[in-house]
From TrEMBL:
Any Pfam family the entry gives: BTB_2
Domain of life: Eukaryota
Record field: transmembrane: none
Domain BTB residues, every copy: 6-73
UniProt name for this protein: BTB domain-containing protein
GO process terms (BP): protein homooligomerization
Organism: Diploscapter pachys
PANTHER family: GH08630P, POTASSIUM CHANNEL TETRAMERIZATION DOMAIN-CONTAINING
Amino acid sequence: MNDLNRRVALQVGSDVFETTRLTLTRLPNSYLARLVLNNPQESRFQIGNNGVVLKHTNEVLNFLRDGKIPLPETIQQIDELKREAEMLNMPELVDFIETEENRGPPFFRGDKVEWKDKNPYRMFQSLNWNFDGNDSDESAPLCFRSNSEENYTCPLCGITTEQLREIYPDNYRSIFSEPRTATQSTGCVWKVHADSCCVDVSFAMFSYVYHIPAKLLQLADSDNPVT
């Protein structure tokens, strides 16, 4: 077996994470890489001594493995992760965090956006909403509601589906009323609601409009234009 593929244990305080030497040495100038490379025979490493507390080890390891991660939910958690990346000498993670933060929200009219995660199930889970047939769940985003004549209220900004149908009489839609491909490309923000908690978006060449929680979206890559 390639020695870099050897599994090792990383102890952070009282928590133990299993990973590989390859993952820990992905960024050769980082503290974790130096720790592993300077101790080639070790299979267990400990960090977080001397009063240093690391809260985001999972995110750090996922970034080392995948090169990207979803940012934590709150500004405080994002700042904690950034500080830990600096402590571990991981400027690549610091740059990634700053770049992702600049991709919003908030958004403005005319912004080009895309889903943060194109997997609907994970999007549901991020909002603590499940595929359980409970269409009466008041916490459900309007874009995931059935496209029936029933009047629903957005739990974030307070607009109703009746009002949205008046604004977009022929084009207001639920995501699940159209093919998957209708919402998988880059979109354009047509209207911003309240404090930018929600936006109305159309995708690609389609004229359909969806009312979406802004935190599910990010600014689109500049090399991924609306088509």
